Amino acid sequence: MAEEELPSVLILDIGGTHGVLEDLAALLKKHFHLITMKQFLENKEEMSKKIQSIFVFECRPTIDHELLESLPNLKVIGNSGVGVDHLDLKMISSFGVKVTNTPHAVADPTADLGMALMLASARRLVEGNVLNFLG
């Protein structure tokens, strides 16, 4: 499938401090034409018609009224995380845009860490490690 045929998704950036991780961007590129916020702002008129989705990574880009108004073909906002507290769902839905997230993405790792902490506490592993280090 040619890149022009792929649906366009807006992301903040690739890599750097706040951008989508490069491995994740490579995966996204298999299914989407990625448009960074910088590319969008440099050519807003042309890009705004192409963007059908926004991929929110670590609460970025910020979804506000101005951004939603500038994207007439936006259909969905995909949030790469469990919660959507950082998104104004009522405002977003007023534009006819759907919001998705990954509600069970961290369920197993959270349970694993919880069990590890309980076992470490019950067996006093931290204290034992400190004594072993000092002693």
TrEMBL record:
Keyword Oxidoreductase: yes
InterPro entries xrefs: D-isomer_2-hydroxyacid_DH, D-isomer_2_OHA_DH_cat_dom
D-isomer specific 2-hydroxyacid dehydrogenase catalytic domain location: 22-114
GO molecular function: glyoxylate reductase (NADPH) activity; hydroxypyruvate reductase [NAD(P)H] activity; NAD binding
Keyword Oxidoreductase carried by entry: yes
Source taxon at top rank: Eukaryota
Keyword entries, A-Z: Oxidoreductase
GO CC terms in record: cytosol
Pfam families to which the protein is assigned, alphabetical: 2-Hacid_dh
Name of this chain's protein: HPPR reductase
Organism: Hippolais icterina (icterine warbler)
